[in-house]
């Protein structure tokens, strides 16, 4: 049992919602299984079912592995423990939904079209059989899962045993909170659930016997109806007593200290219509449908968590499992940060709890511990979804990097949790070095799309789910991570050429920046890593590699990562982005020199001729970010059509198509 909330993250359509539905159907609503729950790859087999069909190949399955230690109460869990080995610390429960082949075949129409429609519309209920098994796979090393390879070793269990052991609750993402569109005429879900909360509290206060809960529920409604006949102050006094603690904690959570529930006697027919959640002064308040959806969503979540906590306490099962889907709905980033900070404190009050949270919010992920993240990955529609543990699985990859692995892994953890967690949800990524590229890349993408995407071709880069990250010279730290999550990545970086300089005093060799034509080395560790540079001590091999780096034939292979660095263009080979940009836009820059910020020595620019752009860049370029900002301004406002360095444009073409 983990003491912290586990985050399930991943791109769209990687199975987060399906996972929640699967848990709910097996643990709470087994009668709700139907044809649409069967995976798409096996549906044709389901439709073609006959006497020869192996029904076990078509089953829907869920395996829960439950860990325990000597401090746990194993009375109920022991029903699922098949091995008395005192060193064992886990047991397995298999849930299985199978087609009742004989019953289905007897009911199927003979006509092929009618048969297909019958299965699609009726496969559920009486045609499905749900069973629960315990099994022990200790020492199992075969590739085939134990529960398939050793069917005779499965021990069937009653569903009542599972319910006694495990209490499951889910708070779905499709939360119906009132909005301003309703104008107060529609349902008020927040007020309704607050009434439900009141009822539970009133039941507990009046009668602890669960068997009499229904009768007590009715009594509490009559009590409220009676109170509604009295003055509002008395009713609000009762509300304050019931909701006081919760609304205070919720108000602190949202920094709205004056949350309250007030009477609304204009409608007395139903309890749900007789109260509403407001904030502000009682005589001058905002009703529910005028409140921000973000606040309503979080309040709804908090009330749901309170109701789940009550149910967990009432059932008193040894294991509690709570799944919250996408808590970020309708909330702005700052509120997501607050939620991520405080949710753990709220749910930690629930005993014996394993909490799961699915999210698309990089803000929530960035506030979470690396150890709590599980990544759902699906490389293609034809492949199954895998769930990866970042802290254990990914750290093992970094360990293979040797002495630098631990430091690189530490950098990755800090970067993803502090700077950007967008990579967890991206389909593709572009890594850039610095501020200049960050300012201008959106412009370059727009130019790329105009030049390369026609009306009938595939979508442009601007409409793809691409995450752009400014990682400086640390792109190599992401190599195992990118392989781990399996997303295509373009790394735009400088060639950073250098040459050896021997000190006359010490005789030591250092490497200083120089034009590409004069170079023998590069200071760019990213290029060395991804393009497999040999040890510089092996001079002949390194010299050959450096030649291939210069002419663009040093390859990173056919993998998912492409390096884009400066190549010779129009007779000149630039060393940096600024060097490359100036070389292919010289005439435009001369014409706009008085409007470009970040320049110095403008007279040098006016007199320049030839192709010594490396020296020119050093002489005229002052603050790079100001220069980039001016380039962008002139493009967007003045309509200047800048040329994009070829290495960048080629890289953008690659990432669009791959």
UniProtKB/TrEMBL annotation:
* Residue ranges constituting the AAA+ ATPase domain according to the UniProt record: 2-380
SMART domains in alphabetical order = AAA
Where does the signal peptide begin and end?
Answer: none
A GO MF annotation of the entry reads:
endonuclease activity
Classification via SUPFAM superfamilies? P-loop containing nucleoside triphosphate hydrolases (SSF52540)
Protein keywords = Endonuclease, Hydrolase, Nuclease
The source's superkingdom equals Bacteria
The name on file for this protein is Putative ATP-dependent endonuclease of OLD family
Q: Which organism is it from?
A: Donghicola tyrosinivorans
